[in-house]
Write a structure and sequence with these properties.
- By secondary structure, the chain is an alpha/beta fold.
- The chain folds into two domains: about 120 residues, Response regulator (Rossmann fold, 3-Layer(aba) Sandwich); about 90 residues, Arc Repressor Mutant, subunit A (Orthogonal Bundle).
- It contains seven helices and twelve strands.
- Helix 1 crosses helix 4, helix 5 crosses helix 6 and helix 5 crosses helix 7.
- The two termini are about 20 Å apart.
- About 30% of the residues are buried.
């Protein structure tokens, strides 16, 4: 594995630390570039397999660059990781195109594992829009979910909730963020709606030997892969 990792944002030591550990421990090609005035064509020229966005303070600082990447056809499918303070995640409203979050202060060993796992997950999404996490398979084009060989009947909202969590495996989302991303801005229901749907979803996809969704106390929920 010789992936090309592009770290955007050189305003703090976290970026250089991540670059160094990716080179040393994972033998990736890892480069660090400044964020100021960055254009999508500069990213295209470097042909990254994955982009890590490292804002100086708030993740909001990198949103212009993020949307610039997503609007270009040659860069829109590149997996994106955001580095941010753990406390900020409680109030973050991350775009659905963010695949993973690395918390600061950086934990190098964990960061390497998360990026390796993300690259493995991305490589498993084929042209038929299949997403696979351990025994769980989501066919996005057919709106089908299977656990092993068993087909699971889900409502539209349950499917969208599972797909969102599964697409951001390992990332914790608050109930408010899930309401925003799955139900939409126009939804005025309370956060209890999320708890109810999570409970129903778990009852359908989990068993004695399978756990996919984890409750993170005082924060929200995250998808955990069995891989």
């Amino acid at each position: 594995m010789n992936e090309n990792i592009l770290i955007i944002g050189d305003q703090n030591k976290q970026g250089s630390d991540l670059r160094d550990v990716l080179k040393k421990e994972a033998h990736f090609i890892a480069r660090l570039i400044p964020m100021n005035g960055l254009a999508a064509n500069e990213i295209i020229e470097k042909e990254p397999d994955l982009i890590v966005m490292n804002p100086k303070s708030s993740y909001l600082e990198i949103m212009d660059v993020y949307y610039g990447i997503k609007k270009e056809s040659r860069t829109e499918d590149i997996p994106i990781v955001v580095m941010m303070d753990e406390a900020e995640m409680k109030h973050a409203d991350l775009p659905s195109g963010v695949h993973e979050v690395l918390y600061r202060p950086l934990r190098p060993a964990e960061a390497v594992v998360r990026i390796k796992n993300l690259l493995k997950r991305v490589h498993k999404v084929d042209q038929k829009n299949l997403i696979q996490r351990g025994k769980l398979t989501i066919d996005v084009s057919k709106y089908e979910v299977r656990v092993g060989e068993k087909k699971i009947d889900l409502t539209f909202t349950e499917f969208e909730l599972l797909k969102f969590l599964c697409s951001h495996s390992g990332t914790v989302f608050t109930r408010e963020v899930l309401l925003n991303k799955v139900w939409g801005y126009e939804y005025y229901g309370g956060t209890r709606t999320v708890d109810v749907h999570i409970r129903r979803l778990r009852s359908k996809i989990e068993g004695k030997s399978s756990t996919f969704i984890e409750t993170v106390r005082n924060i929200g929920y995250k998808f955990i892969s069995e891989e």
